Fold:
Amino acid sequence: MRVDWSNWEPGDKDVESIVLESGWIEKKLKDQNIDGPNLNNLDLNKASKLVGEKIAEGKGQRDMVKALIQGMEMGKEQAEFLAMFIFSAGVSERDLLQAAETATKVQWLAGCCDLCDQNENVMLEPGKKFPSGHIAPPACVNCLCCLSPAVVI
Structure:
């Protein structure tokens, strides 16, 4: 089988559209019960927009952090947290949407802390809560977890 890469472009338009939705980031932080460093006075929609633009360009976390620091004059700790959280939550939401169409279950991979360890390798129907009470990563401030489709035969 040969793959035709002639129309390939960098970036992830699905994740970009998710993170650009107004109010999405505030809802996600609340749903995940995560309180990042000094977020109270920040325009989180603007942060999502800056990260979403980098996602659309196919850029990595370093570029996302730089865009947040320059575009919002925030500290490195805030920028690193927001870049990771926005990207991770956006990817997880995309994965849940895709899994709902194609897989019977999703599996939580790579427990990174005591909270996330509860979920590691657990398989559930998309949209159901894992043992930690989360529907998808990120579940902690430094979450490195992801979801994988798990078709049960």
Remarks:
- The chain has a mean pLDDT of 89.
- The first strand starts at residue 105 and ends at 109.
- Helices lie at 13-19, 24-32, 44-57, 61-72, 76-102, 114-117.
